[in-house]
Design brief:
about 210 residues; mainly beta; three-stranded antiparallel sheet; 1 helix; 7 strands
Amino acid sequence: MVVAGTALVVALSGTAVAAVIISSPSQLGKNVVTGKKIKKNAVTSKKVKDKSLLARDFKDGQLPAGAKGDKGDPGTSIFAESIPSGQSVKGVWGGRFATPTVNTYRNDLRVPFPVAAPAGLTDAQVSFPVGTAHVAASEEDATCTGTADAPTAPGGKVCIYVDAQTSNVTALAGSQIDGENSEQSKLGWTFQFISTGAANGTTVARGTWAYTAP
């Protein structure tokens, strides 16, 4: 009777153990299996889904370099021998000029290209848009269709755009440098302006320009 009672106590207070078989990853909770719990070399190629890894999953230098690509087209260098055909260059001209005494002043200033033009310029190839104030009709060119903020020029020409000029300016003009089609005329152009100055005064004549190589 004592033995039977003891067996009953053990049966009522015993520990039950059940085995659970994991058949799908979805049965595992998030972060249950950590890196420390995975046996070294347990994950082999067969256990990794094809095309599931990305380049960022590998350390730098572990992936082989790809095949060498095709050679690209030559770029445009500022150090080229001359401005390439069809390429446009742009810049600014002028500024503020002193008029120390009451007088008439003529200013001739050279404006350089960043690199030589492929051909020299003539006077007719340096012009202003039609309707520019204080510019003679012979200095205007209807093919200069840009603006001071967005200067443009057709092939082989310099187009000069006025951004500001004071009321004492009486004439504006542009020309080639050192003779038509000369070597120096490949290097830039000249603008001239005439103004009537007051004592200790100033004159403003400024703007932008564009040139497109023929």
